[in-house]
Specification:
single chain; 378 residues; alpha/beta; 7-stranded mixed sheet; 6-stranded mixed sheet; globular
């Protein structure tokens, strides 16, 4: 293949790269859009032989009608965002298509019940916290595309104004230190909206928090002939962010959380509940892989719901095997990785039917997608 080759982008795959097909295989090109004609420079192949090649975008010959001017001057240099070159509506369309494709390709479900995406009220200025890095030269910002350098950032367009004010305060502190001859130690800093506590986990898009909680609550609602679930088991439960909206839907709630700090924060939250709610909420310290079977063993499957919110990468295979063994009546799975969700759906297929998968755009302008999936025991 020659460099400077012209390609037509067929679609945008999960992760944000445009996909083109050539006689020699698939090519992935960032910062592109479906239908665009582009000129690319092929990257040198690294490591083992792959089924695709990567290329850098040189020129957009025939732009998409959905292409817009990025708001960030560091876009395509900073590695934080992938969709600022597209209208928000096109981004949502692409993300929904990626979820459908994951189910079709990985779970062999071309007609998966994917519902309309829950749109973020803001596509810019929504993040209530960011983590910035500081290098030995005193630059403050985010890792570059590829992670080999640091991009000096004065303002992040997807962060809330209050968070950008924290960034400017940090930069002033750094400049003052340099002027005084003080050595500026490399490291990182978590910059948060003033309303957020200094430590602990917090969802980054404050404008989608209630939408996420309401979506989870909607798919957890018991059947009409069943006023509440006898048992609600929440794996990867954190500090109770989702649980707080579900107290009236279950007679007993059991949370499983490995992180000791989050477990302590959950205990603080539980202590603020009424005596009746405190009596029915219990948090277990440990991994879901080790604790779930023991929790499910004495419970009646027909009146038990399991809520799982695993980290990126999805569920360990042992967890899907436990679910297939005990078969609690309903499973609600909050995923931040559509391919992993599709893989786990395939693993659960002999024991569960996928009722719905609802995307929620928790991180506009980035490649991340949240999906709330509802499974029913067969």
């Amino acid at each position: 293949m020659k460099t400077g080759e012209e390609l037509t982008i067929e679609k945008v795959v999960f992760g944000g790269d445009g996909l083109a097909r050539t006689d020699e295989g698939v090519v992935l090109v960032p910062w592109t859009a479906p239908g665009e004609r582009v000129r690319v420079q092929y990257q040198k192949a690294k490591g083992k032989r792959r089924s695709f090649r990567r290329a850098d975008l040189q020129e957009v010959i025939e732009p998409s009608r959905h292409r817009v001017q990025p708001r960030c001057p560091h876009y395509q240099t900073c590695g934080g965002c992938q969709y600022q070159h597209l209208s928000y509506q096109e981004e949502l369309k692409i993300k929904t298509a990626q979820i459908r494709e994951a189910f079709a390709r990985i779970a062999k479900m071309p007609e998966a019940p994917v519902r309309p995406i829950v749109v973020s009220p803001r596509d810019y200025g929504y993040r209530n916290r960011i983590s910035v890095h500081v290098d030995e030269r005193g630059r403050i910002g985010f890792h570059s595309v590829g992670g080999k350098s640091l991009v000096d950032i004065k303002r992040c367009p997807i962060a809330m104004p209050e968070v950008n004010a924290e960034l400017e305060a940090l930069r002033k502190k750094q400049r003052a230190a340099v002027q005084c001859g003080t050595r500026w130690e490399p490291g990182h800093a978590s910059l948060r909206h003033p309303d957020l506590p200094p430590g602990g986990f917090a969802q980054a898009n404050v404008f989608q928090l209630e939408n996420l909680q309401n979506l989870v609550r909607a798919v957890i609602q018991p059947a009409e002939d069943q006023p509440t679930w006898k048992h609600l088991v929440e794996g990867y439960a954190g500090l109770g962010f989702l649980t707080g909206k579900l107290l009236d839907l279950a007679d007993q709630i059991i949370g499983i959380e490995l992180d000791e700090r989050l477990k302590e924060e959950a205990a603080t939250w539980i202590g603020t509940l009424s005596e009746a709610d405190q009596a029915k909420v219990r948090w277990i310290g440990g991994s879901v892989e080790l604790e779930l079977a023991e929790v499910l063993l004495p419970l009646e499957a027909a009146s038990t719901l399991v809520l799982l919110d695993p980290p990126r990468g999805g569920l360990p295979e042992g967890v899907t095997q436990m679910l297939a063994r005990f078969r609690p009546q309903r499973l609600v799975y909050v995923s931040c990785d559509p391919p992993a969700l599709a893989r786990d759906t395939a693993r659960l297929a002999e024991a569960y039917r996928l009722v719905s998968a609802t995307p929620l755009d928790l991180f506009p302008r980035t490649s991340q997608i949240e999906v709330v999936a509802h499974f029913q025991s067969l």
